[in-house]
Amino acid sequence: MIKRIVIKPGDSILLKSGDVFLEPLCISAKGANNQPIVIGKYGGDKKPYLKGDGSYLEMVHVYNSENIVIRDLEISNKGLKPRPYLSGLLVDLHNYGKAKNILITNLYIHDIYGSLYKGDGYNNKEVGAGQAIMLQSVSGNGPDSIPSCFDGLTVKNCYIKDSQRNGIMMWGNWIRKYWFPSTHIIIEHNIIDGVPGDGIVPVGCEAPLIQYNIIKNCPKTLPPTEACDGIWPWSCDNAVIQYNIVSDQNSQVDGYGFDSDYNCTNSLFQYNLSFNNAGGFLLLCNSGGWPQEFSIGNRGTIVSYNISINDGIRQYIVKGMSKFFSPIIHITGPTENSKIEHNIIYTKKKRLNDMDKRIICSDNWSGYSDSTYFENNYIYVEEPTKAFDKSKATNNFFKGNLFVGPLLTPNIGFQAYHGKFDKKMWYSPKDPHWRNMIEFVKNISIPINGKMRKVLDIIGYN
């Protein structure tokens, strides 16, 4: 712990390139505007390595700090067995107020051997998920005596490898009557590789921006009780999730590339690529029954100009269920005023006859969805597939959806396209949104049933 020196704005704490440190780095310091305190390296290209053995809950702990930069470090934290609440990096606020201008960049975090059990009421001695990075502005469920939040927090260019349970997590003032949101949050250009749980989860934020991240190679190691998804905001308003690539989500519960979760309004998912996720492309949910002072539900989600390829491929029956469950889009609970439009959904023939063959399933989570708009989407199927399984959902609106293949559709809002699934069907050069999406995926190839294929070939653009 750095506590015997005075750290002033503009100072740097630099670790020697290539050296290995077996004890944690703990710091509490305040820089100033244009004079941040920098934690980083000197003396070469190789990152200094903070190598933990699970004895400490985190190997880098930044406490009640602002105007600070954490960069160019390698971090691991692996003991003999998983440890609850284990982290690589913890940035923590407690009774602090507003912490400004924190930059986390160019970290290599790997082998964080935390618990696989998130919690949510399960009685297990290992409850308390581990994560590579935890960004925390409230203790427990709060409230703290002095509410805290981040104002200007960026996590970028980090590589997270083979860590459990989660990747980049936030925890904030989520209860609406105590809501004190973090602002100017940017999480971008990170790679999360080999993480079985949730990839990126902003919590308690106003207008977080999550973009240009890659989540892949999620191992099938979560217990059957555990739900996770690639990227999802919780207790956030006006979140923007764009230009991300999520694949290989393999949890037995959920397992979706993207999730518009509850206690949120106006979440925007655009220009994302989702493929080979066991659950599917999108979870849209609201846990009904919460009083307004705790949760305001899920209202105003927009999901547009995304590409889903070969999602919904779970090949087993989840514990506690009687049949296969992996609709491409799962809407559950009393969501309101959701728009799903201008997306490409490309599904391959399922490997097992009894696997889930539905594009959308809307079902109960203490209530049902209301006012869902599914418009101008473009669907490809290779076998009989049900377009919409609505249960008791109300006010479902379908318009202008085109499809190729044997799609079983409602009476209105879907039209068979008599031709190949190609850009003549869905692309308009006058639409800047499609240009943005094409520019993003133009050099990307993905594995589909063992073969690498260009995304633009799959969706018929080339």
TrEMBL record:
Right handed beta helix domain mapped to chain residues: 140-288
SUPFAM superfamilies per record: Pectin lyase-like
Gene3D superfamilies hit by this protein: Single-stranded right-handed beta-helix, Pectin lyase-like
Top-rank taxon, per record: Bacteria
Classification via Pfam families: Beta_helix (PF13229)
Name of the protein in its database record: Right handed beta helix domain-containing protein
